[in-house]
Design a protein that fits this description.
The protein is an alpha+beta fold and about 525 residues long. The protein is built from 17 helices and 11 strands. The protein has a 5-stranded antiparallel β-sheet with strand order 2-8-9-7-6. A two-stranded antiparallel ribbon has the order 1-3. The two termini are about 35 Å apart.
């Protein structure tokens, strides 16, 4: 297997001078060289052919010994030097100091077909940044990351990709319920792929240590390789970098809101500098429309990272990035202008996105009120977000209010919608919505097509991932492949897969993994 290696991060930025793989604080460096832990008996569970193709890896290569050895960490590819990044972060609003790649090891970078990719193993062993952890990953969390990375890509959300899912052959001890009963679980390794894995926290750790020299090196590296549109050569370029990062981050969050995705751990160390969704830990899809929902048990009390707050948290994190960049500019005004504009830009983008979900193109004064009323009514009765918006496309200006209501009836989890007051609220909203649809020019077929292009029919519901995990724990990987194929076409009807276009089953409401997860899952 021949790869087109072109390393930049570990050749252009300063390395940790200590070469021993011991837990420690790392200063005046952007990374530490470290080798993956050799797995006991690696077995390939699943590989993404489309991602392999991006990297110049053909199908024959995927099933080779080389592929298994390299992407399990068993062998280091010739003339490459794996490493772990040094970064800090604000976790749940508090500065946590040095964090770093505690269970991720960057293998190498590839140039292929005029595209650049960095490859990283998650769950491949301890690094200097592992603190008290073992640096390994379990099969259940690895399946969730592998499937979700690809699901998000096909939904049109900026994201890291996943090349492979490999069983390590090692047993990993985890206390999944945090109840003092740790147990052995199957270990696994995911190979993540992205243009870069640089996070907001990479800049924060350097700024926190007044390491302005390396902060500037990292910022210049980031601009050169990932923001070539930035042309200025003076201090303005660092404020412009924050502006570009804000624009990409805004787009990513709007897409999360559009498809009902909740990240769960929007700490600054989990925010990509290129606006990718990164680190699929306790994520989830909004099933019943509840803006206060979080998939993270660690966040259950304060709900900092709830669905409805993701835009505000993105802004909070951008403030921390701007603070980290400030030493390179030494002037607050450029950053203030960028950050103060963000809420206005976000609200505008959010309205545009919601209008697309509703099939509305023209501008009318009361559109935002129509959206607000809908979001309020959706919370009155437990309503499946994905099914509701997908079926909304069936509305017709030729139907009565009762006929249109029947189009969305299957989205409700209970009969509470039959309550007279709630039913009348729906009928009033439907009447306003249908009248608004009549002001559009496009015909109903075109409306339905445009709505179906932004409202997915299939998402990786939490219970679906759990079914794949349960089967995999029994040595059966067919559901991983079935879901992987299903989620490549989330906007298509796929009549043969209609069983997956269904509300969460009752058994999944309280099952661990189907409702909420912890940060270490």
């Amino acid at each position: 297997m021949k790869l087109h290696i072109h390393d930049t991060f570990n050749t252009e930025l300063p390395a940790d001078t200590v070469l021993e793989n011991t837990r420690r604080q790392v200063f005046e460096a952007c990374f530490s060289f470290v080798k993956p832990t050799i797995p006991k008996n690696p077995v390939l569970i699943h590989a993404t052919k489309e991602v392999a193709s991006l990297l110049g890896i053909n199908e024959k290569d995927i099933f080779s010994e080389d592929f298994l050895s390299i992407f399990s960490g068993q062998k280091i590819y010739e003339n490459t030097k794996p490493f772990a990044m040094c970064y800090g972060g604000h976790q749940f609003g508090n500065w946590a100091g040095q964090l770093g790649d505690g269970r991720a090891i960057n293998l190498f970078e590839i140039d292929y077909n005029n595209q650049h990719f960095a490859l990283q193993l998650k769950g491949s062993g301890a690094t200097p940044y592992s603190r008290t952890a073992d640096g390994l990953a379990v099969l259940r969390s690895s399946i969730r990351e592998h499937l979700c990375s690809e699901a998000m890509f096909y939904l049109g959300v900026s994201t890291t990709r996943s090349l492979s899912l490999i069983l390590s052959g090692d047993e990993v001890v985890r206390d999944m319920l945090y109840d003092g009963h740790p147990a052995y679980e199957k270990g696994a390794i995911v190979c993540r792929v992205s243009e870069t894995f640089i996070r907001f926290g990479n800049f924060e750790i350097l700024a926190s240590r007044q390491d302005t020299k390396n902060l500037k090196l990292l910022a210049d590296y980031t601009i050169q390789h990932f923001y070539s549109e930035i042309k200025s050569s003076d201090k303005e370029r660092y404020a412009e970098l924050v502006k570009c990062v804000a624009e990409r981050t805004l787009k990513m969050i709007i897409d999360w809101q559009r498809v009902g995705f909740v990240h769960g751990v929007m700490n600054t160390d989990n925010m990509s500098i290129i606006g990718n969704t990164i680190d699929y830990g306790p994520y989830g899809w909004l099933e019943n429309y509840d803006p206060t929902w979080t998939p993270n048990t660690t966040d259950i009390q304060h709900k900092r990272y709830q669905f409805g707050q993701q835009g505000n948290i993105a802004l909070w994190n951008l403030y921390k990035l701007a603070n980290a960049m400030y030493p390179l500019v030494e002037e607050a005004k450029p950053f203030e202008e960028i950050l103060q504009a963000f809420p206005r830009q976000y609200n505008k983008a959010y309205q545009v996105m919601m209008k697309q979900k509703l099939g509305l193109e023209k501008e009318y004064e009361n559109d935002f009120q129509l959206i607000e009323e809908l979001e309020s009514i959706l919370q009155n009765v437990e309503t499946d977000m994905t099914i509701f918006f997908r079926n909304l496309a069936h509305f017709s200006t030729n139907f009565s209010e009762d006929e249109n209501f029947k189009c969305i009836q299957s989205a409700f989890y209970s009969e509470d919608y039959t309550n007279a007051e709630i039913y009348n609220q729906w009928k009033n909203w439907i009447a306003k919505y249908v009248n608004r649809l009549r002001l559009e020019i496009k015909n109903e077929d075109d409306k339905k097509t445009s709505m179906n292009a932004v409202n997915p029919k299939y998402v990786l519901r939490n219970y679906m991932a759990q079914l794949a995990i349960d089967a995999a724990n029994d040595g059966n990987y067919h559901l991983i492949n079935e879901l992987h194929e299903l989620l490549k076409k989330p906007y298509d009807e796929q009549p043969e897969n209609e069983k997956w276009f269904a509300k969460r089953p009752d058994w999944a409401r309280h099952k661990v993994g189907c409702s909420m997860l912890s940060c270490s899952s």
